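Supplementary material to the annual report.
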Amino acid sequence: MKIIEDIRPDQEFLAFLAQGKFMLQQSRSSGKPFFYPRVAEPRTGKTDLEWIEASGGGTVYATTLVRVRPPNADYGVIIVELDEGPRMLSRVEDVGPAELFIGMRVQAKIVPFEDQHCVVFVPAASENSGKDS
Amino acid sequence: MTIGRRAQAAIVGAATFGIGEAPGFTSMDLAARAAIAALDEAGIGLAEVDGLFVGQPSDFLSGLTFAEYLGIQPRLTNNNRTGGSAFLTHMNVAALALAAGEINVALIAYGSNQRTGTGGLVSAAAPNIYEKPYGLRLPVGGYALAASRHMHEFGTTKDHLYAVVKSARDWAMLNPEAFLRKPVTREDYDSARMVSDPLSVLDCCLVTDGAAAIVMVRKDRVEKRKAAHLLGLGEATDHYQIAQMPDLTTSAAKFSGQRAFAQAGLTPADVNVVELYDAFSINTIMFLEDLGFCKKGEGGDFVGSGVTGPGGSLPVNTNGGGLACVHPGMYGLFTVVEAFRQLTGTAGDRQVSGVDIAVAHGNGGFLSSQVTAILGSNATR
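Predicted assembly:
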C-alpha cells in the first residue's frame, strides 16, 4: 500500500506516462477518481490514495481554436471529460479544426512532449475504444 | 432599506490616472498619482493612511514598495492577489479592519504601464505540466473554452457577444476618459481578427496603461463627503485552471453575488447600475446570469435586448468597461471607481439618473475568483 509520504504526484504521473500508462488517482475509501494528481483527495483531504489506469475514453467538453501567425497552423485545444469523471486540458490529433466538436468521443494517446510525455486524444472511431458515442 | 453590517465602511474618494497611454511613468508612478488624487478628493492627507492595499503587475512585494514610495508606515499592508478581482478582496479586508478599529483610513490602489512600458505584457498565468503541452493561449483561451460551452448548452451566439461589445462601446463614446470611443459596427465585428475561437480581438479587453485608487473610511468619518457606502461584499472561488472549473457555464459569481446581496439585504431588482469585469465579451453574459439579473442561459438575449446600453433599464459598464474604456492588466478596481462616480453623480455625460444602488463585480484568473460588492449612495446610509 502506498502511504502519503511516498507520493510524488507529478513525478509519478510522468513516470507512468513514460511506461505508456495514463494514470488517475483515487482515494481507496472514496473510490472516486480525480485529476490532476495531488497528495490528497480534493474536498475530503483523504490521503489513502492509489493510482488507477484510465480507460482513456472521454468526451470533448469545450473547444477553442488557437489562431497563430502563418506559416504556423492554427490548432485546437479542448477540455475533455474522461469517462471516469475528471476533466483535463488536452488536444485532439488526427482531426481538422472544422471536425472538432463538443460531444465528440475521443480516446487517449500518450505522445512525447519536450523531454517528457503528455496525454492527447484522437477520435474514438480511429482507435478501438470499444465505447459507444 | 435594510443596511448590512458592512455599511460601517464607505468609499469617500475614487480616482483614475493615465488611462490609455501614459508614456514615461512606471506602474508605481501611476498607482501613486491615482492614490494622491483619490485622497485629495476625500480631503484626507496621505499621513492619515494606516491601511495600504495594492497588487502591482510584476512586483510580488508591492505592498512594501508602495508604502516606501509613499513614505508611510501603515499598520496594515495587504498585497492579496487573486487576479483582477484582488482589489475587491482588499475592500473586504479594509472594511473588516475599519470596523474592528484596526485602521482608520484605507487606501487601495493599482497602476500599470503595460501598454507603453518596456516590460511588455505581464501575466501571472504560468502554465503547469498539465497545461503547458497543449498551448492554450492564456488568459483568452480559458474564456474561449467557457464561451464554447455556453454556446453549446444555451445557444449563445456571436450576435450576443457582439451585443456586449456594442453596449460597452456605446457607453465608452460618452466617456471622455475611455480609450476606444469610435463607434463599432457589425462589419467591424465580423471582420475582426480571431484570437481563440469563438473570441476575436474585439471580444477581448484592451491593453492600456492606467491606474485607479479608492479611499475607505468608517461611516462616522463620511460626514458631508461624497460617498459610496459598502452595503455588502461577497467573495467566492472554485478553481484556478480553466479545466478544473466545476461548470464552465456558471462561475462562482453565483455565490459571491448571493453573499453580497444577503449582507446588503437587497436583490438584483434593487440595483440601478452594474459595473462588472468584462475581460472578454462572454464575461458580461455569464456574470449577469450568475449575479441573478437574468436566468442562466438567457444572458445573451438579455444583453441582445439592449437593456445594458445607454438609456437601457439596467446600465452595465457605464464607463465602457475593460472592452472599451481601460484594461491595464487588472481591471477590478475600475469597476469600483465607476460605481462610485455613478453613486455620487459625478459621471458626466454618462451619468445614469437616480442611482442609489450599484454593483461592482471583480473577476480574477480564468473565471476563477469572483468578488461582488454592493454599494449605496448617501441616501442609503
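The beta strands of chain A are 23-27, 33-34, 49-53, 57-66, 75-82, 87-90, 105-113, 116-123.
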